[in-house]
Specification:
Structural class: alpha+beta
Largest sheet: 6 strands, antiparallel, barrel
Distance between the termini: 53 Å
Radius of gyration: 44 Å
Number of helices: 4
Low-confidence stretches: 362-370
């Protein structure tokens, strides 16, 4: 029995020893790890952040009526250029019944007062001719009579305005003729013939007849995340790309950053605005979606390496790379970094164009024919 146990133990020892030797043999026959290298390059590095938004006119004027009614004629359409004072539309007044009755009553009251003052003036004139009253008394009667005539004429004009929107002697200032107050392009005409419109007053902003803007003065309006707003400041250059206009970049200048953020889909966003430089050849339509690259920093024709090649010391947190000094032999070199675009980073000192920098993603050398 003891002899059998001894034999089993010896067999186990032989098997374990043989397995260990086989494992070590396999490890020794594996190809050694070979590290690839890359050399620095000279190029321009631009650090930027991106904001999404749209292209809008710097100033957009909404033309609204100062009288309610129905659109009778429209003289312009989107895309037309107009000058200040050009006719845009004509309104047919639909009078308010209560206002019409009040205006008619005002005429009747003014007529009654006018007839009464006329009788009084005639009576005063008669007794003045007999020498009973003075010239001053007659003059007072004359003034009161003239005022009654003026009130009667004003009541008639108010009635005409309520009924038709205009009155005799005020054709150029007729409320029914809607004219442009600025020069520019008509962006849209949101009304059609037959539409009812509401006048603009203290209690209602009124119906928009047309939107007019100077399309040569456009701005980019967008939003940036709260994590990026601390990196930007006014007067930074912008590069605007418009989705509908391919292969073209428009220059702009950041001139507004909102002092207060607003929540949008769970994130705080800050509004920004940038004025586009005048474009002589390309027409940019208002409302087009666009992206703005905000240039935070720029380094032209500088020594760069890929950010993936840079390591950071665990204690000092200072950057370094490993430079090849022999066949698969590397030496650590501390470097000073500059501007980064997320892929390449500027190296201010520590390496040269001739240095071969270790790539940390190691590869195994392959035998020919594998």
């Amino acid at each position: 029995m003891k002899k059998s146990v001894t034999i089993i133990i010896l067999l186990l020892i032989v098997i374990i020893f043989g397995g260990s030797m086989y494992y070590l043999y396999q490890k020794n026959t594996e190809d050694p790890i070979v590290y690839e290298t890359e050399v620095p390059t000279k190029q321009t590095v631009i650090e930027k952040t991106v904001a999404t938004g749209s292209i809008l006119p710097l100033e957009e004027v909404l033309i609204k009526p100062n009288i309610s009614g129905v659109i009778e004629e429209v003289y312009v359409e989107g895309g037309d250029y107009v000058k200040s004072g050009d006719l845009l539309a004509k309104i047919r007044v639909v009078p308010n019944l209560n206002a019409l009755i009040d205006a008619q009553n005002a005429i009747n009251e003014a007529k009654i007062n006018l007839d009464d003052q006329k009788r009084n003036y005639d009576r005063q004139l008669s007794i003045f001719n007999k020498g009973v009253i003075s010239q001053a008394d007659l003059d007072r009667a004359q003034v009161t009579y003239d005022q009654a005539k003026q009130s009667f004429q004003a009541a008639n004009k108010r009635y005409d305005i309520v009924k038709t929107g205009t009155t005799r002697g005020f054709g150029n200032a007729a409320n029914t003729l809607i004219k442009s107050t600025v020069s520019g392009m008509v962006l849209e005409v949101p009304v059609e013939v037959g539409n009812q419109v509401i006048e603009s007053n203290n209690f209602n902003e009124g119906t928009t007849i047309a939107a007019i803007a100077d399309v040569e003065k456009m701005i980019f309006e967008g939003k940036v995340d709260e994590s990026e707003v601390g990196k930007i400041k006014e007067d930074l250059p912008l590069e605007i790309t418009v989705g509908a206009i391919e292969d073209q970049v428009f220059e702009a200048v950041l001139d507004y950053i909102a002092p207060k953020g607003k929540e949008d889909n769970g994130a705080i966003q800050f509004e920004i605005k940038g004025t586009l430089k005048k474009q002589d050849t390309t027409f940019i339509r208002a409302g087009l979606s666009a992206n703005a690259s905000i240039i935070l920093a720029r380094a032209d024709s500088v020594l760069t390496v890929k950010e993936a090649l840079v390591q950071f010391d665990g204690e000092t947190k200072k950057p370094f790379v490993e430079v090849e000094v022999g066949d698969q032999q590397f030496e650590r070199k501390d470097i000073e970094l500059g501007v980064s675009d997320g892929i390449f980073v500027e190296v201010k000192s520590g390496v040269s164009l001739e240095d071969k920098i270790k790539v940390w993603n190691s590869t195994e050398s392959e035998e020919d024919g594998d």
